[in-house]
Amino acid sequence: MTELISPLSARLSRITEPATIAMSKKARELAAQGVDVISLSLGEPDFQTPQYIKDAAKQAIDEGFTFYTPVPGIAELRQAICDKFARENDLHFQPNQIVVGTGAKQALANAVLSLVDPGDEVIVFSPYWVSYEEMVKLADGITVPVLGALENDYKVTAAQLEAAITPRTKLIMYSSPCNPTGAVFSKEELGEIAAVLARHPRIWAVADEIYEYINFVGEHYSLARFPEVAERVVTVNGFSKGYAMTGWRIGYLAARADVAAACDKLQSQFTSATCSITQRAGLAALRGGRASADEMVAAYRRRRDLVLGIVRDIPDLITPTPEGAFYIFPDVSAFLGRRTSEGVIINDVNELALYLLQDAHVAAVPGDAFGAPSCLRFSTASADEKLVEAFRRIKVSLGKLN
Ligand code: PMP
């Protein structure tokens, strides 16, 4: 018999599928068997894309705007992104510093692959978004996770950052508002981080601001606003969350012109520009400002408060108050080591997530995928009734563990 030899490259075998996607697959399988599963595993707004954005896309089709566009995006869109940065973030870019791609995800991958050499260390503020670590692996870099303390709402401090820096450090990566924790860095906290970076001129930063609009505390601050580090910050943003446009696949980065040019070159060999029609939709979205986002944010805030009201009533679950995004990220360590009513020991958060899927029929994502093996992530981007029912069931199921 011939031996089965994997044809896959070593690179690919090092990469894992996002736990978020793996968990939602499991939830779908269970739902296909007729089980009433509530999936709180994916980070996706449950709102429709605003009508004025859809209309712009229809118009683009009707006008025959269906051809390849310049790789980093159409000129009007890159200009509109510069205008948005100037208006809302006090950041001042030229269009040649903007690269539009198929989602913030591609913008992040462009930045990592453009900046990281094999063996470079990338400090990833942890808990972190699942794809950061895998992107660093693809670039043959080394992820150095630095875990923010629960008492500090999981936010990494400047002192922690300083302590993690070595001569090999090339990049730091974080999201604010943060997926999975919902933490938002204040101007002061970012200022302290900028001061550390100012002392290390070789280190770059990727600031993932995709949840910018979903912020319950008010001001969003960008690391690139600190002049001492501005040149070395790649700011990533997009449309998926703020405009409920996950399926359209559009996001962007702003960086120093040489780095933006490198991202453009990379993207030109992988995907070229994102969809022409989507770009027109993105342009309309930016021209419409953030009013539609503000309506959604009111709903996200209401749901956060609703969910916190219930989970704070569940003994032994420690849940910091998210200041943005649409997740809660409770610490569940008190439940690890407990037994189910059948006597099965729950050893880790993966087993706890599976138990909740099987017993409560609620899908969550185990925190180890985010570098936090004592937490579970629940999305709160669901209808109020679903959230109430989901956390009622979770309370019952957790209550059965002893
Ligand atoms: N960054 C973070 C922190 C995210 O949560 C997500 C989406 N889940 C992305 C980037 C990717 O966004 P997009 O859909 O625009 O690619």
Automatic annotation (TrEMBL):
The keyword Cell cycle does not apply. Gene3D superfamilies: Aspartate Aminotransferase, domain 1, Type I PLP-dependent aspartate aminotransferase-like (Major domain). Residues 36-390 form the Aminotransferase class I/classII large domain. Its cofactor is pyridoxal 5'-phosphate. Its EC number is 2.6.1.-. Keywords: Aminotransferase, Pyridoxal phosphate, Transferase. One of its GO terms (molecular function) is transaminase activity. It comes from the Bacteria. InterPro entries: Aminotransferase_I/II_large, AspAT/PAT-like, NHTrfase_class1_PyrdxlP-BS, PyrdxlP-dep_Trfase, PyrdxlP-dep_Trfase_major, PyrdxlP-dep_Trfase_small. Signal peptide: none annotated. Belongs to the class-I pyridoxal-phosphate-dependent aminotransferase family. This is Aminotransferase. It comes from Hymenobacter aranciens.
